[in-house]
Amino acid sequence: MARDSNGAKQTTGETQGGEVQRWHRAAEDAFEQLGWAIGYLHGIGKHGEARMLAGNRRVIRERVLGQSGQPLPTDSDRASPAGPAQR
After folding, report:
1. How many whole angstroms separate alpha carbon 10 and alpha carbon 18?
2. 2, 5, 54, 59: which has the fewest C-beta neighbours closer than 10 Å?
3. What's the pLDDT score for residue 73?
4. How far apart are CA 71 and CA 42, in angstroms?
5. Does residue 38 contact residue 83 with C-beta atoms inside 8 Å?
6. Looking at the predicted structure, is the pLDDT value of residue 38 above 90?
């Protein structure tokens, strides 16, 4: 049986809940990094590559995670809010 940081035994539900939280955090971190990369590519003029990645991100967010999609970089005058290419 798993133990927490104090050495107390955890139930299976607590262990699985912690695992789910770690996966959720990892997914959010990956989306943050992807958003930065999309903004960067858009900022340096690689618009096709930025649109492709943004489209993939949108599909993953909507179909896999059940969240609303984010706008593509060319949907506005600025890049992704997470990207460095804001003006």
Report:
1. 10
2. 5
3. 59
4. 13
5. yes
6. yes
**Are the CB atoms for 1 and 10 separated by under 8 Å?**
yes
What integer is the mean pLDDT of 30-40?
Answer: 93
Q: What is the SS3 assignment for 9?
A: strand
What gap in Å lies between CA 23 and CA 33, rounded to an integer? 15
* Alpha carbons 61 and 34: distance in angstroms, whole number: 12
DSSP string over 23-80: HHHHHHHHHHHHHHHHHHHHHTT-HHHHHHHHHHHHHIIIIIS-PPPPPPGGGSSS--
Q: What is the pTM for the complete model shown?
A: 0.56
Contact 36/82 with Cβ under 8 angstroms?
A: yes
Domain boundaries, the chain: 26-87
Residue 18: pLDDT over 90 = no
- Phi/psi of residue 9, each to 5°? -70, 140
